[in-house]
Design brief:
Blueprint: E1 2-19, E2 25-45, E3 50-54, H1 66-78, E4 83-89, H2 100-116, H3 122-129, H4 136-141, E5 144-149, E6 153-157, E7 164-168, H5 176-181, H6 194-203, H7 206-212, E8 214-215, H8 218-224, H9 226-239, E9 244-245, E10 252-256, H10 259-269, E11 276-280
Helix pairs in contact: 1-2, 2-3, 6-7, 8-9
């Protein structure tokens, strides 16, 4: 049996360039993994079956789960005929805008690559991941990256910013499809902020980086879910720093380069909600190895 960590991600920028002919939207976004993680355990099966269990009752364990879909995609691409049992230890909130499901699927791909001895590169695994979901290719790599297209075209950066994120997960379901449908032409841009964001992070200009955080979906999400708008206003008054949304929400985050400040903010926010996390930015999986 071996395991892979599946880190959550936040969007430091999320710009939408327009609507594509295939019905998706063209995006340009800076992604960053944080050390809030699920753990995916993989165990070989002799009967060739793909089975799954999860510590969370909110997660399906059949063909609807991206982990199971990733395992099938890996077998189609490689010809690997072996079975696998997937055990998912869930810590990332479900349907939170943190790519938990995509990260779990990416962990399955990395783990199966080792279990099967396939020797695929991360680039090859990311290519398989694109069949499973738009965020899966980025999650194969992790770390700091710019994702373009539907999110499947990933440019990686080795720099690990010395930053902390205080995450808040309101227990409110947000429909990603409804959010994207609510985008207006005025929400689109031809001048994404991704390159400048990455440059500021590489140079250690944290305050400038914080000022560049942007999410084109936030306007729509907050208009569709007024309770999230009210919560953001309340958190902003407590944090006295900008509060941003990850993905289509509902998770929000506050950035700071100072751990003690992050801890103080965590203590303050725990007074108004349960699901609050102090996370640090983490690097990618290029040099990470699963343990048996």
């Amino acid at each position: 049996m071996l395991f892979q960590r599946a880190y959550a991600k936040i969007n430091l920028t999320l710009d939408v360039l327009g609507r594509r002919d295939d019905g998706y939207h063209e995006v340009d976004m800076v992604m960053q993994t944080v050390d809030l993680s699920d753990v995916v355990w993989l165990e070989a099966r002799d009967d060739g079956e793909i089975t799954m269990e999860s510590t969370s009752s909110s997660v399906p364990v059949d063909e609807r789960n991206l982990c199971v879909q990733a395992a099938h995609a890996f077998r189609r691409r490689t010809g690997f005929a072996g079975g696998v049992h997937i055990q998912l230890e869930k810590h990332i909130p479900v349907a939170a805008g943190l790519a938990g499901g995509s990260s779990d699927a990416a962990a399955v791909l990395r783990g199966l690559n080792q279990l099967a001895g396939a020797g695929l590169t991360l680039d090859e695994l990311a290519d398989i991941g694109a069949e499973v979901g738009s965020d899966v290719p980025y999650c194969v790599y992790g770390g700091l990256a710019i994702a373009r297209g539907r999110g499947e075209r990933v440019t990686r950066y080795a720099h690990v910013p010395a930053m902390y994120a205080v995450l808040l997960h309101p227990r409110i379901f947000v429909s990603t499809a409804d959010v994207y449908r609510g985008l207006q032409p005025s929400d689109f841009t031809s001048s994404p902020r991704s390159e400048e964001m990455v440059r500021c992070l590489a140079e250690g200009d944290h305050e400038r980086a914080v000022s560049l955080v942007h999410n084109a979906l936030e306007r729509v999400t907050l208009s569709l879910y007024p309770e999230l708008r009210a919560l953001k206003e309340r958190v902003t008054s407590i944090a006295q720093r900008p509060v941003h949304m990850s993905g289509s929400g509902p998770t929000m985050f506050v950035l700071t380069p100072v751990h003690t400040h992050a801890q103080r903010l965590y203590n303050a926010l725990r007074g108004i909600m349960k699901d609050v996390y102090v996370c640090r930015f983490v690097g990618g999986y290029a040099h990470a190895h699963a343990r048996s």
